[in-house]
Write a structure and sequence with these properties.
Blueprint: H1 8-20, H2 25-28, H3 31-49, H4 51-60, H5 64-90, H6 99-123, H7 127-149, H8 159-184, H9 188-196, H10 201-231, H11 243-254, H12 257-286
Helix pairs in contact: 3-4, 3-12, 4-12, 5-8, 6-8, 7-8, 8-10, 9-10, 10-12, 11-12
């Protein structure tokens, strides 16, 4: 019996037909999102039908507004801190010629070293340690200083404001490195050309450097925004009554750990996925079309 020799051309012709047998949407469909949506539908059903889930959700949902407030107020403050510190650290000081330029360079050196110290210390400590130091050491010290020396009375128990300040100060150090990298990515030729036209440092930064740098660093800025939503749960250690604090309190008092933490996880997933979609839309909106 003669052996059959396979024709390689037949395999080459059959490959496209076999590939077409699988619909393209099977590979482009966001299956992970469907799983999350299914879990959300299950949770909604449990909240509507199960008394334990309903009571747990009604107790925990009061902290959603606090979580959104902490992130919504803290992130813009962190952006301002990060921009200022990043701009300071983007261009290391150099000795100037003349007495005035030399004194100005000394001042810039001091500010640069202080900014570097702030970034190094905050980035070198865990986030929870930063929050505890700011919340229980720095903020009370500043409150006592204002009350003693300036006569400005600040309430002793301002947990929400303390949590916002602590989170903003901690994230300001991380965002400063993002801004520094974005500013330094702009070609020096553009800066030299702008200065040769008589533009001031402020005009160069606001009109030339920052518009380009923001477009380049928008993805990492968005990632930090999503990370801040998750790290806002750490303000629960400062007695801020966000969703994490209320979920922990309910679980420990009612011993309903499954209900409390399942609801807590779905709340954070909803916030982070919504934030990711918003950041993606902003990236597409600010994207420069190719020519």
């Amino acid at each position: 019996m003669m052996a059959t020799i396979a024709d390689p051309s037949l395999d080459a012709q059959s490959t496209p037909i076999q590939r077409q047998a699988f619909p393209r949407f099977l590979f482009s469909m966001p299956w992970w999102l469907l799983v999350v949506l299914l879990a959300g539908v299950v949770l909604i059903g449990l909240v509507q039908s199960d008394e334990d889930y309903s009571r747990t959700f009604n107790y925990v949902r009061d902290g959603i507004g606090v979580t959104l407030l902490v992130t919504g107020v803290g992130y813009p403050i962190a952006l301002v801190i990060g921009l200022l510190v990043g701009a300071i650290r983007a261009y290391p000081p150099k000795p100037g010629n003349g007495l005035t330029a030399f004194l100005f360079s000394i001042l810039r050196l001091i500010v640069y070293q202080l900014a570097t110290l702030y970034v190094s210390v905050v980035r070198g400590l865990p986030m929870i340690v930063n929050l505890l130091i700011v919340g229980f050491v720095i903020v009370p010290a500043a409150r006592d200083f204002l009350s003693t020396n300036l006569g400005i009375a600040i309430p002793q128990r301002i947990f929400l404001e303390t949590g916002i300040i602590a989170l903003a100060v901690a994230y300001g150090a991380f965002l400063s490195e993002t801004f520094r990298a974005g500013i330094q990515s702009i070609e020096k030729g553009q800066l030299e050309a702008a200065r040769s036209l008589g533009m001031t440092y402020g005009q160069v930064m606001s009109l030339i450097v920052l518009p380009q740098a923001v477009r380049r660093i928008l993805p990492p800025l968005g990632n930090d925004f999503i990370a801040m939503i998750k790290d806002s749960s750490l303000v629960a250690f400062l007695a801020v009554q966000d969703v994490t604090y209320l979920a922990r309190q309910w679980a420990s008092n009612q011993f309903q750990f499954v209900e409390a933490y399942f609801i807590l996880a779905m709340i954070y997933l909803t916030l982070t996925i919504t934030g990711s979609l918003l950041v993606r839309w902003i990236e597409r909106y600010m994207e420069i079309p190719e020519r």
